[in-house]
Each structure stands twice: as C-alpha cells, then as structure tokens.
Amino acid sequence: MQSRTSWFKKELWKQDFRNVGWVSIVYFVGLFFCLPIMMLMRLEDIDMYIEYPIQEGLFSVEFAGPIQAIFMFAMPILMAVFLFRYLHVKKAADFNHSLPVTRQQLFHHHMISGIVFLLAPVFLIGIIQVLLHTMFDVHYFYGLRDVAFWLLATSMNVVSIFIFSVFIGTLTGISAVQAVLTGIFLVFLDGMYVLIGHNLDVLLNGYAAIQFQLDHSLSPVINGIQMIEEQWISGWMMIQYVVGMIVFYLLALFIYRYRHLETASQAIAIPKLKPLFKYGVTFCFMLLGGVIFGSGVYSITWLLFGYVVGASIGYVIATILLVKTWRIFSLQHAKGLAAYGIVVSLLFGLVQVDAFSYESYVPKQEDVKAVYVGGYSYIYTDMDKELVTEDPATIATTIDLHEQAIDVSSPVHEYEHPVFIAYHLENGDQVYREYRVNKEDIQTEWEKLYNTDGFKEVYYNELSIDVSDIEKLEFEGNSIVSFNNADEMEQLLNNLRKDVYNESYNESQYEQGVTTHMSSVLKDRGYYNNSIVIKQSYEHTINWLKEKGYYKQVFLHADDVEVMKVASEYDDPYVLEEEGKKVLTTKDKGHIQEALEKVNSVSSGEYSVFLFTSSNMYEYETYSFSEENAPDWVKEHFE
Amino acid sequence: MIRVNNIDKQFEKEQILRDVTFHVHKGSIYGLLGSNGAGKTTLMRMIAGILKQSNGTIRVEDQNVFENKDIKGRMIFLPDNPYFFAQYSTRQMANFYRDMYPNWDEERYQKLKQVFDLDENKKLSRFSKGMQRQASFWISLSAMPDVFVLDEPFDGLDAVMRKKIKHLIIQDVAEREMTVLISSHNLREVEDLCDHIGILHKGEVLMEKELDDLKADVHKVQVAFTDEQPLPAELDIVYQEKRGSVHLLIVRGKEADISAIMKQHNPVVYDRLALTLEEIFIYEMGGAGYAIENILV
C-alpha cells in the first residue's frame, strides 16, 4: 500500500522512459562515438600525440568537440519538447491532468526524469572515459581533471538548457513553437543588443557603438561554447548558471500550475503575453528591417522602408501564429498594426527632433576632466588603462571638433572618416560620441587638435609607456633589430617623443626617404597595439640612431637593396611586368641611394617604387615618388 | 456527491458556461443532455479537475476537485475520445492505472477480461475505435471509481456491447453505490440508464428532473364531453389538441387528481395514453422545445 500513496510513481517514470528514452539513447550513442570510439581510433597514432599532446581536454576537435556542442544544445531541447509534449496536445493534457496527481507533482516528476535521462548518458560516458584512463596510457589525450571538467560543463549546459526549454514550453501550446522559441531566446539578448545598437547607429547622429555593447555575452549558447573552448568556468559564472536554473525552474513550475489547459495548441498559452508577443515580434522585425535596409545604403527613405516592411512582416507573422490561420485580413488586425505604427512614429519623431538632446549635446569645457579623441573607438576600448588626456588645450579643441562634427555629419551618409570622442566628466560620467564625416569638413579643427600635446600623448600613447614595463623595442627595417637595454630604450623614447611632439599636422602628413617601424613588446602582454613609423624627418631620433651606430641596421641602405623596380602605377610588380606595363629595373647603387633619400609614402606618389632586399624576389618594400621628388632618370624612362 | 454550484466558465472572452448548478446524489446516474457546443465536455472536464472554473464551486464529497489527489484517485473521467499512451497495450495501460489509482482491483480486471474479450497484449493503437472504448471501460471499471464521469460514452459501440457496459455500470451502482455522470446528445441512448436528467443549452441548465417523477407527473389523456363545455379550469394543461369533439391533452399533475377532476365533468370518453420520455421533454420545455428536439432524435 505504501508504494501506492508514495510521491514517486513507478509507472509515470516508466512512461517517461518509453516516451523519451530514445533521446537518452541517441545522446549516449552520439557521445560514445565522439569520445571513447574516437579515442580508440586515435590510439593508433599515439606517437603523434606523444609529441603533440591534446591540450583542449575532452572538448577538443579530436573528440569531435563541435559535434558534442551541437548535442549539448539540441538534446535538452528535444528532451523538453517530447517530455512536455502532453501539455500541447489536448487529449494528452486532459488525460494527464485527470490523473490523481497534482500539477506540481507531475511537473517535478517530468523535470526529474528529464534531468536524469539527460545526465545518465553523460555520466556513463564519464565513467567509460575514467575506465579507459585506467586501462590505457592515454594521458596524452586527457587527464582525470579533464573528465571532471567535461562532466561539469556538459551537465551544467545540458540541464540549464533543458530547464529553460521547459520554461518556454509552459508559455506556449505548440511544441514546434517551443523548440523554435527556445532557440531564439537562447541568443535573444545578444541579438537585441546588436539590433538596437545598429538601429541607434543609423538613427542617432553621434551615437557611439560602445554605448550599447556587451562586455560578456548573455547567451547561454555563446557562453557554453566559450566555456568549452576556454576549458574553464569561473565561480561567478557557475553561480549565474545555478541561479538561472533555479529561477527558470520555479518560473516554469509557477506558470505550469496556473496555465489554462485549454491553451493546448495555441501559440501563446498565457493570454496576457499575447500582445507582448505580437508587438515584440513586430518590433524585432522592424529593427531587423532597419538593419537590412538602413545600413550601407545611406538613405533615410530606405531606412523607413525597412522599418515599415519589417514591422508589417513581423506583425503578420505574429498574428498568423496567434490566430493560426493566414487569413488575417480583418479590420481588427489592421487597427492593431496602425496603433503600433502611430506609437513607433511618435517615438521616431522624438528621436528625430532630438527630444532627448542627445545629438546636440556638447559638454562645457569646465565639466570635462579628461578626453580621448581619435578615429576608431577600439583603440580606446582595447586599452587596459584609461587612455585620456587632461590637457586643457586638447579638451578645448576637442569640443570645437565635436561641434563641427555635429554640423557636418549625418548618421546615414557614406562618409567613411571616423571620429570617436570619449569625455570623462568631472562628475564621474563618461560621454561617448562617434561620427562619420568628410575629412575636409573637419580639417581645420583636426589640425588644431593635432598640434596639441595632449592629443599626441593619446595618439602616440606607446611613447609614454614606462620603460620598466617594456621588454624590448623592435625595429623592422633591414632586419629585425631590438633594444632591451633600459637606458637605450629610455633615450630612444625621449628622442622620439621630442620629434613627434614637435611635428605639426602638415609635417605629419608628409614623409620623404625610407622609413622604419618600431613596435613595443611589453613584459606582461606581448606586442603593443600598433607600431610607430620612424621618418627621416625625426631629427632627434635619427641623430641618436646615427650616433649609436644603429642607423644602418634599422633603415634600409643602398647595399641592402639588390634590385629596384619603378612603375608608373601601383600593383604587384610581377603583375605589372606580366601585363607588359613599362617597369624600370635597376641595380645601379647610385640610383638606389638617390631613391632611398627621395621616396615618399606608398600612397602619395605618381610612381611606385619597389625595393627588393634580397635575392628572394618576393621580399620587397614599397614606396613611391611624387611628381616633384621623382629623379630625372625616372621621368625620362616613363616619358 | 457531486455538487456543482453557480459555475461560470469563460475563456478568451467567450462565455462557455453560465451559472450552472446541479447536484448528483451518491449512487445515482445522472444524464447530462445537450446539443453539440452546449458546453457538456467543458463542464465534465471541470468536474474531472482538468479545467478550472472561472466562478462557482465544484465539490465532490464536499471537497474541491481541482488539484485534489484524493478525490481524483476515486474518480475516473472517460473522455469522448479515449486516450492511451503511444504504443501501450491494454495490460501496460492497466499497470499504469494500477500504480495511479489506489482502489485498483486486479481480480476485477481479470474477471472483466472475459466480458470484453480483447487481447490485452495487443497495442491499443491497433484497436478499432469501438475496441479502444471497450478497453477504456475495462481499465476504468477495474480502477473501482466511486465517481465515474463519462463523456458520450457509447459512441462507436455496437448494441450488444452497449447493453453489456450499461449492465456493468448499473451493477456497480447497485453494488457499491458508484455515482455516474453521463453526457450525451441523445436522450434515447441514456434514458434506460439514468435516473436523473439535466439539459444544458448554450451554457445554461434549462431543466433538471428525476425521470420517475417526470413520468409520474405528466400524463397524456383523451377526453370528450357531451356538450360544448370548456375544459376544466383546474387542469394544468401543458398541451392541447382537438380532433372533432375529442380533446387530446397533456396534463401535469398526479394521475389520481386528474382522473378525479375529469370524472366530475362526466366525460363521454376518458382514456389515458402512453407518453414517451421524448414527448414529456418536448411539452415540458414549451418554447425552448425547438432547441431540445435535437437531443431527442
């Protein structure tokens, strides 16, 4: 009698197994091929793995990591869909809920069987992997720690996605909708960030992308993949997963207990969610339409077209799903779309008249503590430390530049020149703006800005790094030359700073003579973001290099050049020759020496100059001659 | 036993049931009649604890049914289209019921095997509709329910099987006071089984009667008087018709009273005629009768 009144119903369990046992078996077979079989196969090539042991644990490509990942996301969704299918079929829902079991009990029962059926194959494979580890010498493939991590990561992902999918299942009355919505919601938040960000970008002049960017993905799928790629789960991440599982478990239970069973076979089972679903889908499709038609075309008409088409398609799809017929052409539905249109137009209007003073906002000089200004925002965001200057002259000219940029830019036009500004305000706030402008339109302001020390402090930030943090300075000229003597590095950086800070904007746009690149390698994080160009006009630096006798090593010298080729257009020199274009080829050291002194940067000249540094005909540096710098023998040749 | 009081049910703005009240006594068989769409199935699903009413109370043995394991353990709901788990045989389904219902009687199950003559190990999905229904009766009756709720239970059954099953139900009612609620769109199908009848029309209960009372209270008489005197005013006449000098009357009241009244007026002819249940309903319902005719076909 005891068993009959107990909470645990054996037959309910059995039924679950008969219903979804196959998911368990498929998962087991899949994992069995991915892990033990794969490993036994690779035992044949054990020599290779002795030399190059697998570093990525049991999620590595050798263990079909990507396929495992697909299983990891697909199996729990399948499990949730089939286990709770009875909720979505009227007859089955009636039957199950006429049984002498409470809804709560049914829910817990199915949840537990789902989790057990999902974890059983995982743990079985885990045990097999441990046994294999004791039977064979497979430590080149994985260690017991890897098995533990594999178990933890797989279980956590599988169970959390299962619970989430069940939660979605309680919201809907159609199993297909459950599967599709689970998929969508697993990447929903990340997707919304992208969609909203893209749309603000074309709607708001000055909108900076970094304002709406995620530091960490909010998608369980992307987090899951990251987890198995990095072979690591942080404690904080685990807490988030566990809390998420508990929250969605309880939410699902709550909805399950109160949902009306009549909603079986309806797309949305909670009546109050229907308008949210309808207008939510409409909104998302509208944003998507905005991204598709609004970016790249630079036309507000096409953007609006994208919104109208997107919103209409979204509204139609959502309505069709809700009423379950495509014949939805009624006044009532038209009214719904019209109401949506009015609300969105109002919102759109508010943005257009800058009701939130976003586009017109320029901070006052006295409110700004520090500023970053440059082309792309990634230089600012990628930096570990804050890359800003407090130089008042820079702040003032930045504000001028900002005002000019507001006047001359528009979010939807084709100008490619980017300007990114980050203000750190006195009150602790940070304000970001990003513009795309026509370079000529901001030329005056930009030049003024360039000539401030603060700007160069930011722009040539690699010159301000403390020498004690630098492992070495590397030149890539003739051959790679590096400095690691602290004194020398200090002197070199000092000289470079002097040259760079003295250089005016116009000077910065011009170079003559061969150049070289210097990059910094930091002690703790390797290569620094970008390298700096050393020009012949950098008096202090060049003198120092000559004094120390490094000049010939870091710059190309006539003796280093085997052959020089000059052409009247720019392309790969071999292509030019093959196409029968006139190419001047010379080994004359006098000519080469003259060229080394007179060449300009690659983009500025009439004639392309190719300096081949060795007999290897693929190693060459490219420069150019401007019309006035070109030697007579070049001009004569191409006459 | 079953007390349904002032039930309202609406779903998505649609009013399905409106202020439905009726009671079924322990050990009685109640027939719930109504045309298609009257709300019978919804009402039964609520009584079975599947759906929740919007307003009102449904009590079985003075307890609310919804989410009540005890009550549901002693009650079986047989839907108009029986449901079985995919790929299950009768035996597997019976095992499931045995685990779920505390009063399951294995001996009864074995005994009923002879009545139904089905292969208990064959998959239920391969049975015909009628066989599936038999199997569902077999399993349901073996669970020894105190309350048996049946939605259009005789669809798809042949006459012999119908009789057998009715017999089984009556037997359980007689032997252990099982309470039965049967819905049907056809009065004739249940009139030999039910002792009470309720009519549900467009979500409302139109009338509720005990069949024995009904038959005792309404009479069809043929009467003719010598002169053109009017019919006695004391009679509660539901329906009248005149053929020549003969009146054909449907009269409400006790038979003895009616006879006494008639005798006082010295009729030339006075006969009592047989009255079918159908006629009683049609005449009783008066204006609403047209809607009811459907049920009586």
From TrEMBL, chain A:
Keywords: Membrane, Transmembrane, Transmembrane helix. The chain crosses the membrane at residues 20-43, 63-84, 112-136, 148-169, 176-196, 233-256, 276-298, 304-325, 337-358. Residues 423-509 form the DUF6449 domain. InterPro entries: ABC-5_transporter (IPR053046), DUF6449 (IPR045611). This is DUF6449 domain-containing protein. It comes from Pontibacillus litoralis JSM 072002.
UniProtKB/TrEMBL annotation, chain B:
The keyword Zinc does not apply. SMART domains: AAA. Signal peptide: none annotated. InterPro entries: AAA+_ATPase, ABC_transporter-like_ATP-bd, ABC_Transporter_VariousFunc, P-loop_NTPase. Residues 2-227 form the ABC transporter domain. The keyword Nucleotide-binding applies. GO terms for molecular function: ATP binding; ATP hydrolysis activity. CDD domains: ABC_DR_subfamily_A. PROSITE patterns: ABC_TRANSPORTER_2. Keywords: ATP-binding, Nucleotide-binding, Transport. This is ABC transporter.
